[in-house]
Amino acid sequence: MRGEEIRKGIDVYPLLSEEEKSRKGEDGVETKSLGKSKKAATLAVGETALSRVLNSTPIMVLPPLILVRLQQMEWLRRHPRLTLPVNLGLILTTSILALPLALAAFPQRQAVQAQSLEKEFWDKGGKEGKVEFNRGI
Questions:
Q1: What torsion, rounded to 10 degrees, do the Cα atoms 96, 100, 101, 104 define?
Q2: Of 2, 34, 65, 86, which sits with the fewest C-beta atoms within 10 Å of its C-beta?
Q3: DSSP H helix total and E strand total for the chain
Q4: Cβ-based neighbours of 119, under 8 Å, separated by 6 or more
């Protein structure tokens, strides 16, 4: 699915100022796409992959390290049946804490300089010469 985005490109829009956004909201008019950019798609897919790695790394590293320490404690040795619930609780807690941080690492809508994309977008940038695209989650 994401490979198709890289091959065909994703829609790129001019970055709007706050005034233009509020005016657009009143009018109900959608911003027209400037076209499809393969460079923006590559950036979006790469950052999405990186945010997924950022999400899974703490979940795969922290619970095992903490569980090893807990298994050395006397109370977990006396109650070995608690190993699985403690491990699941550690995974759940790490997931709850890591997911928002990983999603916040890169915003869903990203603004970049129009000059960093294909030449067809160079003179079409909005506010400060920037364009934006939906990176996805």
A1: 170
A2: 65
A3: 5, 4
A4: none
